[in-house]
Amino acid sequence: MQFKNIFKFHGGVHPNGNKSLSTSLPIGRLPIPKKLVLPLRQHVGRVAKLKVKPGDQVLKGQIIAEADGNVSASIHAPTSGKVLKISEEILPHPSGLPDFCITIEPDFKDTWIEKKPISWKKLDRTELIEALSQSGIVGLGGAVFPTHMKLRINQSQPINTLVINAAECEPFITCDDMLMRERADEIIQGALIAQTILGAKECVVGIENNKIEACEALKKAAQKTAIEIKVVPTVYPSGDAKRLIYLLMGIEVPKEKRSMDLGIQVFNVATVAAIYRYLELGEPSISRVVTITGAVKAPQNYEALFGTPLSELIIAAGGSPNKTKKFIMGGPMMGFDLPSIHVPVTKAMNCVIESSPELFPAPKPVMPCIRCARCADACPVNLQPQELYWFSKSSQLEKAKDYNLFDCIECGCCTYVCPSNIPLVQFYRYAKSEIIAQEKSKEAANTARERNEFRLARIEREKKERAERHAQKALGANEKQADDEKKSTIAAAMERVKQNQQENIKT
Amino acid sequence: MENRSPYIVDAPSVSVIMFKVLLALIPGIALYVYAFGLGVIINIFLASFTVILTESAILAIRKLPIKVFILDGSGLVAAWLLAISIPSIAPWWIIVLGTLLCISFGKHVYGGLGYNLFNPAMLGYAILLISFPLIMSQWQIPNNLIENNIDWLDQIKIIMNSSLLSKETIDAMSSATPLDYIKTQLTLHQPLNIIQQNKIFGFLGGKGLELISLGYLAGGLYLLKEKIISWHLPVAFLSSLFLISLIFYSIAPDTYASPLFHVMSGGSILCAFFIITDPVSGPTTPKGKIYFGIAIGLLVFIIRIFGGYPEGVAFAVLLMNIFVPLIDSLTQPRIFGHK
Amino acid sequence: MITALLVMIFLAVLLGLILGYSAIKFKVDGDPMVARIDAILPQTQCGQCGYPGCKPYATAIAKGEADINQCPPGGDTGAKALAELMGVEFKPLNQEHGLQKPKSVALIDESTCIGCTLCIQACPVDAILGAAKQMHTIIASECTGCELCLPPCPVDCITMEPVLENSQSWKWKYPVYNIQNTTGA
Amino acid sequence: MIQHYFLIIISTVLVNNIVLVKILGLCPFMGVSKKLETSISMSAATAFVLTIGSMTSWAINHYLLEPNDLIYLRTISFIVVIAGVVQFTEMLMEKNFPLLYQVLGIFLPLITTNCAVLGIPLLNAQSSQTLIESALFGFGGAIGFSIVLILFASLRERLDGAEIPTAFKGTAVALVTASIMSLAFMGFAGLDR
């Protein structure tokens, strides 16, 4: 197949897609579960502000937590019911640590709050963005960045091109594929709305050549519009926004810049569909399409309400034949093990794969790096993964940083091709979070230093002032005594600290 | 909980890579046997035996899994390369000592597989060359040049204990390599075309030796096809060696051998495809590989022509290994989105 | 003999003159090292090193009066960084000065606090809020965990609470290998 | 003439490399090669001292010692001169590159006792060359020292990440590496003819 006007990026890999597993059936609907658990943080940015308390009755689509500031997103009740509790629950996050969630007990009436479609053609840009900030829509490709923030544009750099990301390059995931097959119209309408809000001159959809049906559906829907559907070769990670921009336009977006700064904005297909539903139908972001695939009996895509426990999704997919009950969220290249099968569906959850030894064999023994540089050939960022590994492994973090560790997108191509089976990405993640933690503590140390210096200066100043007062009044004997008393107390305290420490050592 | 994404991999293991390298050496070795008899096989056998024993002992001392690190094949590759680089009629303890030193000092002192700074095989060769210069310059004459053909039993005898054979037999079997011969004859002010009429010269390089080089070339092309090695190193090395010898050849064809002769004699081809392509001790960036190859080509020529040793491959490789960390850090490719 | 002496004297005088002149010309004042050492120290201001704060300790190291391994909050990592900066051999933390503990912040039991302000005066970074006869509280984000407020408290209402990992401060851990290939022996 | 000077440079830098072939100056070679950056500064300082030192020693030898028949004073007077030059360099660095001064630490005054620095002028004086020759000799030696020190430092930095057996960690593996480098430099033998 020939690709016209496509710019190939360096590296990339061609894993087996395994996409047909979950595309034979249309998108299913899940019944309303017995309880819904909604984390307050499902997006990048500040935690949403709680608007309900336990015992409150809520309607479907009602805001239960409000965006706190600009970089934040609201959370809506996915169905009508009662707020059961607000508590810490385990989340679908690689840490497996709990965070605050609202638990709703549905009343199974599914009563909508009054839907308010917005006649978006009549509103100006600021009003639209204001309206969208209530929608709860975040990037549904997995980045979960609040969408209304991406529609804000700065004056100096107008947006020229809107890119719709339909690449979906990770194996196994088909939620965008199925969405495009079934709701191509919504996507195209949503793209047009986003294009209008951004004032972009052109709109390009980038889709991998392995999604023929979806591509046909999009082309059909976009017939009468100026939207261009561009087919890109199937190479992982073409779905990474910066890689897709390069494929489509030949523009490299540097690490420290956003594509916005170069006049390009990227939205995922599911995100623009959500924009369409919010503005045209008045439906906020309360559900998404999730792929459940892998070893489950009946892999399929489901439209799931946010907060639906994963266990419900597994039951719908025919249950799991395996006893291991290991589930991966995301694709096999960048996903992570879920800590429990009771975690809720969140805005970021695009795919859940049941792991099995046949699908994902246990990792082979790790051998030392032989510097064969296959990883460097596969790296889509053109980094030198073998050097980054060498430095991360021996915790030479400064050096790793010098070799542009933070340009790494953790796509996993390097590990995919490593003859020594080294978990390279894990080393980069470790090094990155270690560097960030060190920088944080450095910052904290600087604040502490400033505060300490300020305090010392203040004490010095007060001493001086007091001395002056003494000299003036010439009756400072009493005060001096008091001062001495304080000093001796502190000195005694210091003495005690020392003693304690010595005792500690002895014990 | 493990977070080991990516969950899927698609890569040949280190063992597969190393055993493919051994496989690629087979045509060259077969032609070696055809031209010079079984001596080389005995050396390879001795080297393999020594390397397995030495590595097992070191791994046991270091409390590392022995089976895994023997089966990775990297020790065998180094041992085979050393065995085919030394004269095939050298006494048995030469290869045993060389292998022992190259594996222990070249590889395991630095931590074993993946950590050595220097090419182990070339380190072993350089140590042997400096310690036993006489033995290391006595090469066998191709079978078809010896009047009363010697059999493989004689070869075993000479390798195991040279006193079992008469001095005449040994002298009849050995001579200098063409490169060595040219060097010594040039100091006697012989013109090159006369020198090259000696019977040890063949069509392109040394008689028999050129055939072996062709065998290595075939193996090298197989490695390129299998993507075990990248094209940068052999191309850079061979073209720089060819060009520099072409320049000197065109200035004074009476003193300097032809570029093809330089490429086809000595260890040039083996070096291009098997020695400088050792990933551990070589540079990793594409640009770095090209500079590395060019520099080795130049050094090989300089040492062959102006230096004290007839063949410069081992020293050139070791010298450039010293430069590898610097080359790597100075030739970092442009990162996506960087200027 | 005389010439030899004369020659040596001549050399000595000549060099003496050149060096004396350059000693005046290239005179250096101030020590840029203190700031660089201070930048490595964790700024808890806890005084466990035996000096009344991080800056005095830094000054002492620069002068060569104090050793590089007296800072428990900095731990071995800090000592390593100092060793590298000073160009000396690394020494593990001197345990006479205390052990490295996980980062903690002080917490005042507000029902017991009598509002004596003693802890406020002890705090090196002004991280305690309050006034006389009023309950005090700790600004957790500013607290360095130095424990200097514990001894002065007359009612022992301050405790040190270790900072727990949450989903925001969570870090990726060092990967675990399948085969052991570190060199123990 | 130019060929002669070229051969002096080739000989001092490669064939008779001061560290790897003459085995002089091992103290800074081992001590200041842990980091690439410091090794670069150290080699610059040593190169400076070596070149200036060779030239001044030549002058002293040529104008002071030889005319007065005081050749037996060579060693001691060279030591005095070199100590002076080092002291001067030290002051210069403390003023202009204070951080470098701190990083180099004890190794800066130790240039005085660096046998390479004394060795080159002495070898120089024995072969009684002209000023240009002795300057080239000193400079070549300095370049040889610098190149080898910098390369060695880059190798040692790479070794920071290697899993070297405990018994060989640190100086041991550094010495093995230095000896292999020395072995490799033997390949240059015969180039100065």
UniProtKB/TrEMBL annotation, chain D:
Per the UniProt entry, what species is this protein from, by scientific name? Candidatus Methylopumilus planktonicus
Q: How does it assemble?
A: The complex is composed of six subunits: RnfA, RnfB, RnfC, RnfD, RnfE and RnfG.
What does the similarity note say? Answer: Belongs to the NqrDE/RnfAE family.
Give any Gene Ontology cellular component: endomembrane system
Q: What class of enzyme is it?
A: translocase
Cellular location of this protein? Cell inner membrane; Endomembrane system
Which segments cross the bilayer? Answer: 6-32, 44-65, 71-92, 99-123, 135-155, 167-191
Name the membrane topology term: Multi-pass membrane protein
* Protein's name in the database: Ion-translocating oxidoreductase complex subunit A
Give the principal location in a single coarse category. membrane
Q: Would I find Translocase among this entry's keywords?
A: yes
Do you know which InterPro entries this protein is assigned to? Ion_transpt_RnfA/RsxA, NqrDE/RnfAE, NqrDE/RnfAE_oxidrdctase
What is one process in the GO biological process aspect for this record? Answer: electron transport chain
Q: Does the keyword Iron-sulfur apply?
A: no
Q: What is its EC number?
A: 7.-.-.-
